[in-house]
Fold:
Amino acid sequence: MANLIPVSYKLLKGMNESLVIRIIKEKGAISRADIARYTNLTPPTVTNITKKLIKDGVIVEDTMGESRGGRKPVLLKLNPGYFYVVLAHISSNHLRLDVSDLDTNVLASKRIKLSDKSPEAVLKNLFALYRQMVDQSGVPEDKIAGIGVAVHGLVDSERGISLYAPNLGWRDVNLLESIKAELGIEVCVENDVRAMAMGERWYGAAKGVDNFLAVKVGYGIGASAVVDGKLYTGITHSSGEIGHTTIDVNGPKCSCGNYGCLEAMASERAICETMSKRLKLGEKSIIKDVDDVDIEDVYRAANIGDELAIDVIKRISIYLGIGIANLINLFNPQLVVLGGNIIKVKDIVKPVLEDVVKQRALDNTYRGCKLVMSNLGDDATIKGAHALILSHLFDM
Ligand SMILES: [Zn+2]
Structure:
């Protein structure tokens, strides 16, 4: 059942082919002359490689490009239907699965709530959703070359193991082995925040940026650093745990057991808890469910002008700004991208973050650094899974 075309392709082709495919993927539709310029390969070498790639069906000639005088150049791009990939995002409470072509066009997609979070139950759901979505997409199963999986928590991406996923209650779950055994396709597993960073780098705000940080705020808070174009993972795959850095020694207890962690003070969980506490004290809001505050209700209320919801979000944004200023002082990055579900209230969060970061980051570390809100939003993670599985399949 396994599709041998792209895999054998990966094994057979040389480094120059990889390089040409990477440039075409990175730059989009591009002329042969520009490929030669970016790769430092000679024009005859580029002509030979692209001829072979067209013959194999990996790339196609696109519509004519803009002429710089003289004949219009023919542009080359990846053949979106050369093969297809499946992308999965396992978050704290949900499983999303997409079937996509090489151009990130989504052919089928579904998101389900996870009631039983045991590894066996989640994998069973993943396999069922895989078959359902592949069927719905109309893509023949032997054209699916691989699956990119982004999962919450610590991940050893080399071995494809979820080391620790606190919100799922997982420890040492070998996702790669289980998925490969069941589906017989190539598998790539990565932590959700690192996947988000790759999504931003390939398809979003960090396109072409080699040194940047991605900060994801949702139920938890995590960060990922791209240094000189590469994901920095740390020696035990655990870098980026900004959520568990201390912001206030006298702060509330965190899920990790410590007190005053950023995550305990600025995550969506913190927003809901603060909201609930202030509602119980009698503060006015359009939100009526005092005990079980839903984050989506808070965001909706804030976006239609509910003063309490806006105030709670502004206050947590101060802590978030402190966390981001700390990161900027450590890394001196070119760009910080804020993503995750909190983007739904970006117009409230952004001005507060900018003020706090300006106050707290050193002039020299913040100079030249841009702080942007992700325009991919929650899609950045699944797009990152696309980037990761493509890198793996094409050996980029
Ligand atoms: Zn903590």
In short: The pocket of zinc ion is lined by residues 244, 254, 256, 258, 261, 263 (CB under 6 Å). The two ends are 25 Å apart (CA to CA). The longest strand covers residues 106-113.
